[in-house]
Amino acid sequence: MTAQITVTEGGIAHNTLMIYGIVGSVVLIYLTYLNTLTGTQLFSFFGGLGAIAALIWGSSTIKRLCSYGIGTGVPSAGMIAFGSGVIAMLLATKFGIASPIVALVLGFVIGAILGYIANNILAMKIPVMIQSIAELAAVGSMVMMGFSVMATGSFTFNFLSVTKVVAIVGENATVVGANTAYVTSLLGGSLIAVIFMLGALAIQHGFNACLGPSEKQDRTLMLTAEVGFLSMVMVAILSYVYLDLVALAISLIVSVAGWYYTYSRYIALSKRDAAAWLDTKPIVEAEGH
Question: Where are the domains of the chain?
Answer without folding.
Answer: 14-156+185-272
